[in-house]
Amino acid sequence: MSAVIDNHGRQHAATGTASALVAGAPERPVAFGSGGVALQDFLDEVRGLTALLPDRPFALNLCEDRHRFLVAFAAAAVRGQVTLLPPSRTRAAIDEVRARHPDSYCLGDVDACGCEDIAPLPHYLRLPDVLPRAGGDMPRVADAAVVAIGYTSGSTGAPKANPKTWGSFAASTAQNMAALAGLLPAASDTAHVVATVPPQHMYGMEMSVLLPLLGGVAVHEARPFFPVDIAAALASSPLPPLLVTTPVHLRALVGSGVALPPLAGIVASTAPLPQALAAEAEAAFGCEVREMFGSTETCILARRRTACEEAWTLLPGVELQPQPDGTLVRAAHLRDAVALADIVELLPGGRFRLCGRQSDLLEIAGKRASLGDLTHRLLAIPGVLDAALVQLEPDACGVRRLAAAVVAPGMDEAAVRDALRQAVDPVFLPRPLRIVPALPRNETGKLPRRALLDLLGAG
Questions:
Q1: d(CA 382, CA 380)
Q2: What is the Cα–Cα distance from 171 to 182, expressed in whole angstroms?
Q3: What residues have CB less than 8 Å from 438, skipping those under 6 apart?
Q4: 459 by DSSP, 3-state: which?
Q5: SS3 state at 174
Q6: What is the DSSP code (8-state) at residue 44?
Q7: Fewer CB atoms near the end CB (10 Å): N or C, the chain?
Q8: How far apart are CA 101 and CA 80, in angstroms?
Q9: Residues 45-102: pLDDT tens digits?
Q10: CB distance 52 to 132 below 8 Å
């Protein structure tokens, strides 16, 4: 019997089969980088750290080192604690999540003293420099136990909580392994992953935490950010690695001209991947770029090769049911059907076309347009490096105008607006349109609506 936390944060008891924390040969690697970590050593560290954790039901894992994040996440799960995954690691996001769970604690791999993001942070446990070890039996976790609560990014509103059980993570990881078919090496070899996304994000959790635990994959311990650092991390893999990244990082890699070692493939998610960028990356790095479609609510549910495919292919066991204002998702790893705001068109052979969101459809002065299409036209202007459009709240006349933040070095607002006027109806010209040095994207490239409104002075 183990503790389970429901959607409202109440703790109760649940029964169910218990699964091994991780499977594989004792010598197979779990993490690599400055030093490899074998499965047996990892399990010893998990058992050792479990005894050091405070007696609280919720843990907020802030570890930067992915190996240490893995150990801390596993130890918390074995202890019966739920790991909280905030939408970002900003102090505001941390405080908001902890306010919902006042009986939580934080753990990390840096000192709270001198780090403005976490100091002063009550109930903070810094992992020791040398992780403790303890022998014993294989740690097990009940399939019905809630081991994580992921919070949505807040890009369309307030972050929402999404509890995840160990059993659901096991089922979704099996689907993700199927989604990676053709990119990973033969079963006799351990696949190696380098991820630029943080483990606290659900995409990062799926691709860089659950794959090592449940898929027999080894992950690089670091989270490289700059192109030269990404190249160095990839070069440390004993086999051609899989790069797990975002469209923002991929664009920076392509634009940098940095040479990468041979890759097993590239996986991208968290934001729409332009077809042209996917094709450029495939040509530059000589491997397939596979885009994943999912959400914090559903985990990954579809894939496509964006350079040459528009339609998405559903993962095994996933079903979609179009609704007037979105789509219902059913899958083996979901206890109940999940409603997404995305509108889809079902196609033969388990495929679908993504048609945007109801909230993206605009109607101004009797004319209609799509927020996604308008953003695409804005990004197509020569000299525009990044841009975001947002529909403001109604003005005194009840009109919801558009506003835009644009990164375009060397251009002024009038030049961008004049270029955009050639491509869109005048009623959809953003007012205001502001040139900014950078957009307030989070670690995965998403743009929280509140941060964008603050940047535009429209909050």
A1: 6
A2: 20
A3: 386, 407
A4: coil
A5: helix
A6: H
A7: C
A8: 16
A9: 999 999 999 999 999 999 999 999 999 999 999 999 999 998 777 788 888 899 999 9
A10: yes
| 333 in Cβ contact with 371 (< 8 Å) | no
Residue bearing tokens 């909050």: 459
d(Cα 192, Cα 219) in Å, to the nearest integer? Answer: 6
Backbone φ and ψ of 14, nearest 5°:
-140, 145
Q: What does the alpha-carbon distance between residue 297 and residue 130 come to, in Å, rounded to a whole number? A: 36
Chain position carrying tokens 């799960």? 77
Alpha carbon of residue 404 to chain centroid: 25
- Mapped onto helix, strand or coil, the DSSP state of residue 212 is helix
CA nearest neighbour of 158 among 100, 205, 82, 107? 100
Report the phi/psi class of residue 257: left, alpha or beta, with left for phi > 0 and alpha for psi in -120 to 50: left
A 10 A CB-CB count for 34 gives 11
- Predicted local distance difference test score (pLDDT) of residue 304: 97
pLDDT score recorded for residue 9: 39
Integer Cα distance of 324 and 147 in angstroms: 34
Is the predicted pLDDT of residue 7 greater than 50, yes or no? no
Query: What number of CA atoms fall less than 13 Å from residue 361's CA on the CB side?
Result: 11
The per-residue DSSP string of 54-92 comes to -S-SEEEE--SSHHHHHHHHHHHHHHTPEEEE-SS-SHH
Q: 243, 263 in Cβ contact below 8 A? A: yes
Q: Please say if the pLDDT value at position 175 is more than 90.
A: yes
- In whole angstroms, what is the distance from residue 440 CA to residue 248 CA? 12
- pLDDT, tens digit, for every residue of 369-381? 777 778 888 888 9
CA dihedral (275, 278, 283, 284) in degrees, to 10, reads 140
Q: Is the pLDDT of residue 5 over 80?
A: no
Strands (E), 235-325: 242-245, 265-268, 289-295, 299-304, 312-314, 319-323
**Cβ atoms of residues 202 and 296 within 8 Å:** yes
Omega before 432 within 30 of 0, i.e. cis: yes
- Per DSSP bridges, beta strands 37-38 and 161-165 are unpaired
Please give the residue that has the higher pLDDT: either 86 or 173: 173
- Is residue 188 within 8 Å of residue 33, measured between CB atoms? no
pLDDT confidence tier of residue 158, bands split at 50, 70 and 90? low
Which pLDDT band holds residue 34 (cuts at 50, 70, 90)? confident
Is the backbone peptide bond immediately before 120 cis, with ω within 30 degrees of 0?
yes
How far is 161 from 150, CA to CA, in rounded Å? 6
Q: What is the CA radius of gyration of the chain?
A: 22
Contacts of 388 (CB under 8 A, 6+ apart): 375, 404, 405, 439, 447, 452
Q: Amino acid identity, residue 53?
A: L
pLDDT band at 367 (very low <50, low <70, confident <90, very high): low
